[in-house]
Amino acid sequence: MGNWIINNGLTSFILVIWMGINIFLFVWFYFFYDLGDEYFYTRHLLGSALAWARAPAAVLNFNCLLILLPVCRNLLSLLRGSFMCCGRTMRKQLDKNLSFHKLVAYMIALMTAVHLIAHLLNVEWYNNNRRGVYDKLSIALSNLPDEENTTYLNPIRRTDLAAQQTPTYFVFTTIAGLTGVIITLALILIITSSMEVIRRSYFEVFWYTHHLFVIFFIGLVFHGAGFIVRKQQTTDPPHNFTLCKDRSEDWGRIPECPVPQFVGGPAQTWWWVIGPMILYICERMLRFIRYMQRVSYRKIVMHPSKVLELQLVKDGFHMEVGQYVFLNCPAISQLEWHPFTMTSAPEEDFFSVHIRSAGDWTDKLIDIMQKLPEGEQGPKMGVDGPFGTASEDVFDYEVSMLVGAGIGVTPFASILKSIWYKFKISNPKLRTRKIYFYWLCRETHAFEWFADLLQGLEKEMEERGMMDFLTYKLFLTGWDQDLRYTEGINFDKDTDVVTGLKQKTNYGRPAWDKEFEQVRKENPTSVVGTFLCGPAVLATVLGKKCAKYSDVDPRKTKFYFNKENF
Questions:
Q1: Among 347, 517, 310, 529, which Cα is nearest to 422's?
Q2: What is the pLDDT of residues 411-456, one digit of tens each?
Q3: What pLDDT sits at residue 217?
Q4: Which helix (H) or strand (E) holds 539?
Q5: Parallel, antiparallel or unpaired: strands 324-328 and 382-387
Q6: Using one digit for the tens of pLDDT, what is the confidence trace for 510-528?
Q7: So what's the pLDDT on residue 106?
Q8: DSSP H or E run through 351
Q9: Looking at beta carbons, which pairs linking 330-336 to residues 24 or more positions away fall under 8 Å?
Q10: Cβ atoms within 10 A of the Cβ of 177, count?
């Protein structure tokens, strides 16, 4: 249990607080509408469906306040910089922004479903009361006239058979009904297009459909302006429902029972969402300003396995290791922005990204770059960033384990390059005294573009007598028998036949228990930062291993798990 708390304690505490607020809002507003005197007559028409509609609405307001904040990238980077004085555990929470964004979205979807079902029942019961299906009091409440929009209670009021206001007509002709339909349809499209299979295979569908959130928020702000849910207001003399509810035929005839007056409550959603909406608008304005800044190409390199390297230059651009940028190429799409981890080091006078063929946008970009004449500048490129990630904290740990899968090696390319530059200085000031680097690839060609950097590091460490500083292991997870045979007959060579490095390539997947046990044995009293840029399945495995091999005793080894999230 103690091992689990080291990596997940603060995250779990934040989630408990979030869930606690959701539960509190639901319960508070449920009983407010279910027990409040001003809603006695409204409850008589609608029953418990009134509370079941309004309680989810309160939870929706709270979560709609939160949903935009995790995707305000510049705000998160600002907070990360502000938290540098705080513990690394606090900064790690910002790296879970997309996971929290999804969790909030699930809550919005659930509360929308409850809210929608309850209001469908409300409309049906309003209609039944209008038709006189129930008791005398219900008929009296439904027949109250509309005088300056303050008196009536039942919004479905017309009783003449020639022009009956059906529930369907009511839903599609009122502000509350029409906006409710629009925002529900927008939410369904947003959620369904966010499914993993759609996002991975048809990113453009996900990207464009996700921007329906603009319509969702506009509809949300106006949704409560219809004043459909109404409450009794104070009259002079006062209308006492306890005395008058059984004497509806005497309303307005005797002083004790004046005609009850009702009013719709003010639209409250905009109180909740106006702040996040302003922040997000500022975020988009800042992105547009950055988009307009000129970016020039220093070098365009096409590596094996369809990996494109872009070396870019932008005035005033400053980065840290492991950070990422969003790129936009108007020649492909005016609206699409895609995240890429930078592979350059802060010590270099340019910044670079390595882009693997992984969809329509990347395929089109690679195709454009391949057709360019030698030495020619590429198409206009918009750059937003840089933005911080967990990898920024690599040098805050005494020992770091870096795990990259495929193109997921990119943040660690930046880190290893920075180490190389730091060791060019006579006495580099590093808190980190040991780095373990693991790279998992499916095919041999994927090693080629990165091998030069590792060879340079090997040489630098050897010259300085610091071969113990960096331990790296390469794993080829997809291999055939012929390749293994070639490796076998060349086992006595100084360098690996696949990478040309002194460190031999391993075949198959790492035995993580063995690796963690070795790291713990070699660093018995250290705090070890474990960093992953790779698939969710591997993240689950490494997260469990960090918990398994950590010890709550401060005198023993502890593993902190960090994962890149986009």
A1: 347
A2: 777 887 887 777 766 556 777 788 888 888 776 665 666 666 666 6
A3: 92
A4: helix 536-549
A5: antiparallel
A6: 889 898 888 888 888 888 8
A7: 93
A8: strand 351-356
A9: 330/379, 330/380, 330/382, 331/368, 331/379, 331/380, 332/361, 332/364, 332/365, 332/368, 333/204, 333/361, 335/207, 335/208, 335/211, 336/204, 336/207, 336/361
A10: 21
